[in-house]
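---------- Forwarded message ----------

FYI, see the Cupin domain-containing protein record below. Original note from H. follows.
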Amino acid sequence: MLYILSGTVEVVFHDHSVQVGKGDCIHFPGYLQHRLRRVGRAKAVALLVLSNA
């Protein structure tokens, strides 16, 4: 799970991407190939929660 505290982040998957901004949350299986990138010049801060359950 990725919760955005400030700024905007783009989560890029193999076949699509999703932009999430302050207050947004995205969750997906960690085994999916992905990468994150900041969108714009503003600092982005995110809380990343990992679980093995």
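H. also flagged this: The CA atoms of residues 1 and 7 lie 17 Å apart.
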